[in-house]
């Protein structure tokens, strides 16, 4: 077998630095690579896609809001301004419509000052931007993980092309259908070490179709020329199963084909597209937009949710969707994967010397720091799904209770409650503790950053040496 990790690459890293193998070239894996590069830690990224331009295909066409929870880390690395340069400022707070285009509610702009310009950004654009930051020599394409073995001395990845890679830490950042996750759980289950809760199937609730149109005619679609954007959510009612271009599972034959795939995939989506051509939008019908979109640019994803209890074992750690799969209703998936990368990079940086015991301790501490933060988001994602998607109680209808719930939250909920939740959500802004801290933006109180144990120890040792020098002199 050949090996993907060369001796020259390993020798460039300090002896005390662990060698990190990252399976998955999505946002979490790429962002972790950038952080490790800044920290001077040896790493390699192994992506199953055949070429760099394919990276991010599983998130192509998706968008997420500029998040105050992750942008400070971008600012630390000098990427903040460039990131904002290709985002779209958000106009207003958004509008929620019925499938008949009747207004349910108009959400006001967020009045709290979190210091971040509210807007939307293409996840694929972020992924392409991240690719540029990782040296090409550390990014290996067409590397589909088949299995791995770990022991006291290291971890070895085996790929579908019969090559291997050897390192000290393996990070499974390869999505909800993570090969690292599957192999780890299979191994632990054979040994009787996998909790029963982690043997359950993931909850499946919705399918989403996403796509990117060709350049649109500004006369027909005047919003494309505007410098800002506005969100409009369309919620199906009655016998209409479609909400925000999501379909509840079990409703149509097309909706249940291929269930089990949680990555963005270009399957045979034409049948599903044909079923929803008549669906109304403010620009006409969905069919009008489909006619402006090449079929290869349309992907289908199955939204699932599951908070796994097992994130790490030995030298292996899972991040992003491989460890915790949230519904897309809060749009926090991409931000969470990158937050995972920040916190994990902090704990990897603190590993000194690189021993098996220290690695295990660091990965345990990472999970302990992140788990409750992720767990807090699950009730929010369920509530947001009820508000945005509907059809929670039954596939073919929205219940009276759900209509009332939506009316109360959108139109009657006291602003003070909404603001308190927004402040709480904006307070958590993890940063790389081995880089200069980004300046605070806005007036919202933020959670204090955990200092680096390694840097603290080095400062204490430096102070002792200075004190000893003064005494000697």
UniProtKB/TrEMBL annotation:
> Which keywords appear in this protein's UniProt record, sorted alphabetically?
FAD, Flavoprotein, Monooxygenase, Oxidoreductase
Record's keyword annotation contains Oxidoreductase: yes
UniProt lists the family membership as follows: Belongs to the paxM FAD-dependent monooxygenase family.
Give every FAD-binding domain span: 20-190, 289-370
Q: Give the species this sequence originates from.
A: Linnemannia gamsii
| Disordered as annotated region, ranges | 439-460
Q: Which residues form a coiled coil?
A: none
Superkingdom to which the source organism belongs: Eukaryota
Instruction: Report the InterPro entries cross-referenced here.
Output: FAD-bd (IPR002938), FAD-dep_Monooxygenase_BioMet (IPR050493), FAD/NAD-bd_sf (IPR036188)
Q: What is this protein called in UniProt?
A: FAD-binding domain-containing protein
Q: Does the keyword Protease apply?
A: no
Matching entries from Pfam families are given as: FAD_binding_3
